[in-house]
Amino acid sequence: MRGQVMIKAIATYIGNRAVGNARRSFAPVLIMLVMFLSSCGHGGNVPEVRKGVIDLRNIDFRENKDIKLSGSWEFFWQKFLVTDGMDPVNSSPDGLIDIPGTWNGYRLHGKRLPDQGFASYRATLLLPPAGEEFAINLLFAISSSRVYAAYPDGSVELLGKAGKPGKTEEDTRPLMGSILAKFRGANRVTLIFEVADFGTNIGGLWTAPSVGRAGDLTRNIMNIRFREFFIIGALTIFGFFHILFFLLRREEKAPLWLGIYCLLVALLSTSYGNLRLFEELYPDANCFEALNRVTFLCIYLGFPIFLTFYYKAFPRYFPARMIYAVWGISVLLTLPVLFLKSYYFYKTLIVYDAHIIIFGLWFVVLMIRGFYQDRSRLAFISFTGLAVIFAVSINDILMVHRVVNTGLYSGYGLFFLVLTQAYIVSSQNASARRRAEKLWKQLMLKSGELESANTMLTDLNLNLEHKVEGRTRELQHAKEKIEAAMEELESVNEHLLSTNSRLEQTQRIIKVDLSMAANVQKSFFVKDPPAIRDWDIAFVNQPMADVSGDFYDFYTEEGRLMGISLFDVSGHGVASGLITMIGKSLAFRLFMENRDKPAADIMGIFNKNLIKEMGAMDNYLTGVMLKIDGDCLEYVNAAHPDLLVRKGGKDTVDIIRKSDHPGTGGFLGIPIMNNEFDMQRVPVQSGDSFLVYSDCLVENQNLGGEPYGLDKLVSAFGAASHGTPAREQLQSILDDFYLYLQGNKRADDLTAVLLRKL
Asked: Cβ neighbours of residue 685 under 8 Å, at least 6 residues apart?
């Protein structure tokens, strides 16, 4: 808490003392920086492991959802307590060792332990007598591990493993994967970690495991992974965006280097830090050496690429010899990575850390000097992004060398840096528009002056015989003014043409961005209906433009349909498209986590989480959610068009109208609306068909300005042939809809889902 207060005080001081224009224009970015740094704090005092025991009996696990088991653990060198058949609870340890840490340099019985070997770690947990189910999470151990739990009844349970720890290099399969496992709640639980490392020089429990209630810890880990995936996706999009920007304007090299750096850090984030994607997808693969090479190449090449980006963006601030020196050192560091084993190139980390601190400080000093020389607002913004990325890089270096235990935040730092660059691009576009408006006003002023001069010439011509001698000098003066005005008009026209060219180029870039966003969204949505044994499903999704504001999903489990949802985001464009991807992921996760709850409760949970995710955005959502409960269908409507039901063997269609109770069924994603959601249960029989749809299907108008309407939709649904597949019924409705439009274009995104009970 004290750290967060200090961070906010420092940010306030900087905001009060910064240069006037830079302070005002960069206030939103500074606020995001304060929010980010504030979120990195840790609250609450929890006990540590002392002499292999940690007392958690008085801990409220509802408040402390993720407790780090750091401290002094019991240490057994060259022994596997469980695998060797020793007493896992009562065996005497060889000594105590601090976690997180490595056994490299640890002194045991007066002797320094070697880099490579195997060992066991043991800690006893004193837990509350509530009997709840707990879980343990280990980010990774170097370089292979397995964990056991010993209970008071004498039973020992294998909770999880990463790789295959062995007593020799030949018997060991290294894999630095994460372990997340549940264990039975008991008054006293002993955790035993068996760790082996023959591939690096930093073996051991490099990160402290954490413990908590099973549900809380699992959700916490899933939230962390969701944020990591979001950062990786954002960095990938930013990377390709800046590379495309460079391809459109090849004379600007800075976007190319920034794009490469974004993609490099996105790749690094999949194998380093809080997310080790490849190890989780392929836990049995023998890929330790290959992954280490990829990780170290990304780290060693990332720093010179990052400095080259700033050198191309501000060439006057930095000497070229500095960039060449950094590239030379980085290339030399990559040679051991390419040709030696992990054990040897791990030792080059200290050289890399030293050179990144030295050159990084030099780089920051040069950036500060350039900022104070130019007093440039954009330079100040870039310097702020640089300061953040340099600070988190220092934090990660200290984390790697176990000086601090705060976590790895380089991905977040780069994300903030990219936000600053996006702000700079937006500021440049706004400045270009203001210059164009100023030039237009100047043009109108000069045109008025030219009109006045022409009037004066006409008057002179009418009275030429009487005023020729007296007005000759005035005529000459007027002529000079006209010539000067024409020259200035030509200059203004050239400026307008140049400004128009830049605006057209910006418009092309925006069009490319929209196309790329549409491709990302299409890959995110379901392309074909799921194969369900007792339901026939058909759907259609036709965006009005490149990016759709509608999203839908099917929730299945073991070939059984559990439910569906369809939502419509207000507005159009990239912002609505991003909300569809956030909303779809959020709806899927919350539905699956709460599938045992009624549909109304799931919709309420989704609305609360959606408000947190969307923040202060102006968009809102409407939607429906159907949950299958045996022979009934639970139906919840949030300000969306009504559900249509056609009972088997009948031509009539029932309209299941949404609740009209005050305060229920309102819009989603609006913080000031404290909605509750009513739920209706609809019986389901074989042959019944259900239709959910977006408002385009009833509100779109024909050439005469008349909407298709609910009555025509009900008639078309009832006219579909009995017993035909869902796809044919839906196509019959769409044929009638487009025939009614008479060639008129749709004014909104069209999405519809038809379910038919088999």
From this structure: 631, 647, 648, 757
CA dihedral 315→316→321→323, nearest 10 degrees, is: -40
Contact 566, 526 (CB under 8 A): no
Q: Which fold has domain 526-757?
A: Phosphatase 2c; domain 1 (3.60.40)
Considering only CA atoms, which of 273, 243, 331 is closest in space to residue 139?
273
> Are 379 and 322 contacting, i.e. CB atoms less than 8 angstroms apart?
no
Q: Please tell me the pTM assigned to this model.
A: 0.50
Nearest to 630 by CA among 530, 680, 687, 563: 563
Return the HEC string of 424-477. Answer: HHHHHHHHHHHHHHHHHHHHHHHHHHHHHHHHHHHHHHHCHHHHCCCCHHHHHH
3-state DSSP assignment of residue 575: helix
3-state SS assignment for residue 7: helix
**CATH hierarchy code of domain 53-214:** 2.60.120.260
Instruction: Enumerate residues 6+ apart whose C-beta is below 8 A from 138.
Output: 145, 147, 162, 178, 179, 193, 205, 207, 209, 210
Would you report the helix, strand and coil content of the chain in percent, each value rounded to 5?
50, 20, 30
- What are the phi and psi torsion angles at 120 (to 5°)? -125, 145
d(CA 307, CA 250): 19
Cα gap 595→490, rounded to integer Å: 70
The series of mean pLDDT values per 10 residues for the chain, 758 residues long, is 34 36 42 44 71 94 90 96 94 94 89 93 92 88 91 94 92 88 93 94 89 92 85 89 90 89 86 66 78 90 90 87 94 94 88 88 85 74 77 73 65 75 64 79 87 77 68 82 84 82 74 68 84 94 90 93 96 85 94 96 94 83 95 95 91 86 78 83 94 96 94 94 89 96 92 96
**683: Cβ contacts below 8 Å, ≥ 6 apart:** 631, 632, 633
* H helix intervals, 39-131: none
Strand pairing partners for 144?
Answer: 196
DSSP 609-631: HHHHHHTT-S--EEEEEEEEETT
Q: How far does Cα 371 stand from its chain's mean position?
A: 31
CA distance 129 to 584: 40
The Cα 53–Cα 119 span in angstroms is 18
Put residue 407 in one of left, alpha, beta given phi > 0 → left and psi -120 to 50 → alpha. left
Asked if 713 contacts 642 with a C-beta cutoff of 8 angstroms, the reply is no
**3-state DSSP call for residue 685?**
coil
DSSP 325-365: HHHHHHHHHHHHHHHS-HHHHGGGHHHHHHHHHHHHHHHHH
Nearest to 326 by CA among 339, 310, 344: 310
Q: Locate 450 and state its tokens.
A: 């030219």
Which sequence spans correspond to the domains of the chain?
A: 1-41, 53-214, 288-408, 433-521, 526-757
